[in-house]
Write a structure and sequence with these properties.
The chain is of the alpha+beta class and about 375 residues long. About 55% of the residues lie in helices and about 10% in strands. It has a domain at about 235-330: Roll (Nuclear Transport Factor 2, Chain: A).
Length: about 375
């Protein structure tokens, strides 16, 4: 919420506090066990940031926006469950059924749910497992789902440490035969890094650096072997450090003088335009395109009404040097008026989870 608040230059603190207070009451009254206040507040603040508000109509405006925002939020949760199931099962009808059941369970749950997005994915995964568990001829896919979930939990549980806890069979064979796994086994021969450092006659800090590098390389190799293509976790240690160094280089050029713009043009002629307005890189992501090519996403929150987002296609060569292939500024989607003579099928414009249905399920739960 702090990120949105930083952009509300046109909204005074009193108005901001009034909106937040009103939404806190609305959300607490209907969704006391779901931690969705930040998402709802951010969504409504984005909508009202450019609206001319007066003291008399702030509450009515928020009340009018609230049902639609709730519908969109739960439609997003529905799509999260649907896309996850569709990717695994390749069955649209099954994925939609599981997504519907997931949201129903979310709305009728009496337990406190803090991480709603994570909960939705977890429940959708469990329902998909349950479906294939009931189908004897699909037992192989069910086992793959269970194994993959277990292994991913092991990988993402801690950045500094890594233990398979007897789950070596879950690792792809190509990884087990690789040098990263061999290096990992050498580390695990010792009870702790202190013993490893003593045996190798190196400092503890050097041993810690080797451990960090080995574990990151192994995690990245496993994720890639399992088909993951997005997230900084797919980058090995040197690639990750190279991307970080590249981003720092961009920032140094951006915040420099005229020479800085010249440095950007040396990297790619279109970089100054793609990164215009950037003062910092507040978040970044990466997707593998194949080989050593990556799509790098850069985001700057800044003080504009909307975040600045740019895409940079890069290649990381064998020496881990980053080269820019192309870049562009991502444009925000606009709004378009639908002509009066255009007919939209009713089922296409229907909300996945209408506000009235959400409220009715919540009321049933309270009985």
């Amino acid at each position: 919420m702090a990120q949105i608040q930083n952009t509300l230059l046109s909204m005074d603190n009193e108005t901001y506090s009034l909106i937040v207070e009103q939404l806190s009451c609305l959300v607490q009254d209907s969704f006391s066990n779901l931690n969705i206040l930040d998402e709802v507040t951010n969504s409504i603040l984005i909508r009202v940031i450019k609206m001319p508000l007066h003291d008399g109509d702030i509450r009515s405006t928020v009340n009018a926006l609230y049902p639609r925002v709730i519908e969109e939020l739960f439609a997003g949760y529905h799509n999260t469950a649907y896309r996850y199931c569709l990717k695994r099962s390749k069955q649209a009808d099954l994925s939609n059924d599981i997504a519907q059941e997931t949201i129903y369970l979310l709305l009728t749950s009496k337990k406190l749910i803090n991480q709603v997005e994570f909960w939705v994915r977890k429940v959708a995964h469990n329902l998909l497992c349950k479906h294939y568990r009931n189908l004897m001829d699909e037992s192989r896919l069910y086992q793959e789902l269970v194994n993959e979930a277990s292994l991913i939990n092991q990988i993402t549980s801690n950045e500094e440490e890594f233990s398979f806890s007897g789950h070596e069979k879950l690792i792809p064979e190509s990884v087990l035969r690789g040098s990263n796994y061999a290096s990992y086994l050498k580390l695990k021969q010792f009870d702790n890094l202190g013993d490893y450092a003593k045996a190798k006659r190196i400092s503890y800090e050097a041993a810690k650096s080797i451990s960090k590098k080995t574990i990151r390389n192994l995690k990245a190799e496993i994720l890639l072997a399992l088909g993951w293509q997005a997230s900084p976790d797919i980058l090995d240690y040197r690639q990750y450090k190279s991307i970080q160094s590249f981003i720092r280089k961009l920032l140094a050029a951006i915040n420099g003088t005229g020479k800085g713009l010249a440095d950007l043009r040396k990297l790619h002629p279109a970089l100054p335009e793609a990164l215009e307005g950037y003062k910092s890189v507040d978040d970044w992501g990466v997707t593998m395109l194949g080989g050593r090519r990556f799509r790098l996403y850069l985001m700057h929150l800044g003080t504009e009404p909307f975040p600045l987002m740019s895409t940079v296609i890069v290649t990381i060569n064998s020496r881990n040097h980053v080269q820019v292939e192309s870049c562009k500024r991502n444009q925000h989607a606009g709004t378009h008026n639908i002509p009066a003579n255009v007919l939209i099928p009713k089922e296409k414009g229907k909300a996945l989870w209408p506000y009235d249905r959400i409220v009715s399920l919540l009321n049933e739960k309270k009985r």
